Amino acid sequence: MLRQNGSLVFFTILSQWSVGIVLCLAGLSWGNPLALQQGSGLVIALLLALILVIAATTVSFLHLGNPVNAPKAARNLATSWLSREILAIGLYTASLLAALVTARTSGGGAVTPYLLSACSLAGLFLVWSMARVYRIPTVPAWDTGFTNVAFLSATLSLGLLTLLLFDAAGVLTRQNGTPTFYTGLLVAVLAVEMGSGLVGYFRLARMETGIDGPSFARGGLLFRLFRARMAMAFLACLLLLYFTLHTELPPGTLVSAGLLLATVLVALQEFAARVLFYASYFRVGL
Predict the structure, then answer these.
(1) What is the extent of the structural domain holding 59?
(2) Could you tell me how far CA 10 lies from the centroid of its own chain?
(3) Which strand (E) or helix (H) includes residue 243?
(4) Are 33 and 72 in contact (CB under 8 A)?
(5) What DSSP string describes 144-173?
(6) Are 29 and 101 contained in the same domain?
(7) Does one domain contain both 276 and 187?
(8) Which range in 29-43, 73-87, 272-286 is most confidently predicted, on average pLDDT?
(9) Which of 90, 107, 133 finishes a domain?
């Protein structure tokens, strides 16, 4: 599974992670601008987002039979979601680079929220285009709203997780319980992921995938991976809820270790979910 679609797994996850970081920074820039105008936190976060999307774009070329023909895929903007995805990733990368240069030269400033908002719009266009690429009528496992939910929730969960890590490291300024709010929001997103994942998986289990199609039967490889993914997401929620409800805990070793473990669990379950997504491929009709 990973050998065949590994480049797509990493392309989608890394690019959505980048967009998630920018979305969270945009929200923070409007709601709590002081957190982004002190120190180098904004520059580091934007640099990380840029590295992620560049890495994602580079990995995507591994999926092409002949990378030299890649520009040809962008010629059908009127009819092709793949062409729109290519345009979106170009717009997103360019706007992200502009925001990074501005933040680096001005140290933030009043223009930053607007640039971050522009990056966010380009990033949302990228995530939406990415999801639409897989809404193929002859691939029933993908042609469903669960695809849109999975891509958007992965974007939000990875972005929120990065924001919490930056806060724990002291890179962003803590003010007015912002970490508690974002931790609770992350738990809510993970809950949506688990709920949609359960419904989506059991929907797949009832499908007739054909002789050569994937098997979602209990006890099979895909079922075990699905169960592991659910367990990791659930444990991450428990850890995050614990630290949300115990705000009196000082930001010491216990909190740092718990957040680091939650980070690993969330990232692993997102990758597992994406592997399951590509493994669910089968066609019907012509």
Answers:
(1) 1-133
(2) 11
(3) helix 221-245
(4) no
(5) SHHHHHHHHHHHHHHHHHHHHHHHHTTSSP
(6) yes
(7) yes
(8) 272-286
(9) 133
Do 174 and 242 have their domain in common? yes
Q: Cβ atoms within 10 A of the Cβ of 68, count?
A: 8
Helix (H) or strand (E) segment spanning residue 9: helix 2-31
Residues 121 and 161 in one domain: no
> H or E segment at 182?
helix 178-205
Q: Which residue in 198, 216, 197 sits closest to 207, CA to CA?
A: 216
At 177 the pLDDT is: 45
Give the whole-angstrom CA distance, residue 155 versus residue 91.
Answer: 18
Is the same domain home to 192 and 251?
A: yes
Residue identified by tokens 């903007």 is 77
Tell me if 99 sits within 8 A of 115, measured CB to CB. Answer: yes
So what's the pLDDT on residue 214?
75
**Rounded Cα gap, residues 50 and 100, in angstroms:** 8
Render pLDDT for 179-192 as a digit per residue (tens, 0 to 9): 677 888 899 999 99
> Structurally, how many domains does the chain consist of?
2
**Model pLDDT for residues 146-168, shown as the tens digit of each residue:** 999 999 999 999 999 888 888 77
Answer whether residue 117 shows pLDDT above 60: yes
What is the 8-class DSSP label of residue 71?
G
DSSP tag of 174: P
- CA 203 to CA 38: how far, in whole Å? 48
